Amino acid sequence: MDITLLVNVTARAWSLDILARIAEGTPCRQAPLIAATGAGRTAFAASLSHLMSLGLLERNPGHGHPLRPEFRLTQDGERIAPIAARIIGTVRNRPEAPLLRRSWTVPVLVVTAQPCFFGEIRQKLTPITDRALSQSLLKLETEKMVEREVDTTARPPRPSYRAVDLGSRIAQAVVA
């Protein structure tokens, strides 16, 4: 998956979960999807609208009541939903699952599948701010999903970051 698209999809908290649930066969109406994801109505509606604006979901014409519409994946959505299902499946029923709802978690893990310096990560994730990247790396390091290694032979010493354990499995789910 293109890293820019991944950044756009993960910009809303429940987007990956919605795509994953649809790929797994959850009925494509609002009530079953809310029940399956556990999202609040407002956050769910924002994520659903976001997916529609990205062209990954659309209303299914001729199906459902106007107040209870049915949705379907677009051609691009059908390509991305299985990837979302693999990502969500990697952390399902784990305490780290809510971390995937944070904007930069999955893109940072994908970029750090290979060891990278801070500047390289920032360059690959162009719209990210230094503060957002620092906070994401710190949180992922705390959760033991990213490992920080400092090269003390360089002047000045430079830390590099690499996805490990669960973080590596999530990155592989995207790339596979």
TrEMBL record:
GO terms for molecular function: DNA binding. Keywords: DNA-binding, Transcription, Transcription regulation. The keyword Lyase does not apply. Gene3D superfamilies: Winged helix-like DNA-binding domain superfamily/Winged helix DNA-binding domain. Pfam families: HxlR. The keyword Transcription applies. Residues 81-176 form the HTH hxlR-type domain. PANTHER family: HTH-TYPE TRANSCRIPTIONAL REGULATOR YODB, TRANSCRIPTIONAL REGULATOR, MARR FAMILY. This is Transcriptional regulator, HxlR family. It comes from Pseudooceanicola nitratireducens. The lineage of its organism: Bacteria, Pseudomonadati, Pseudomonadota, Alphaproteobacteria, Rhodobacterales.
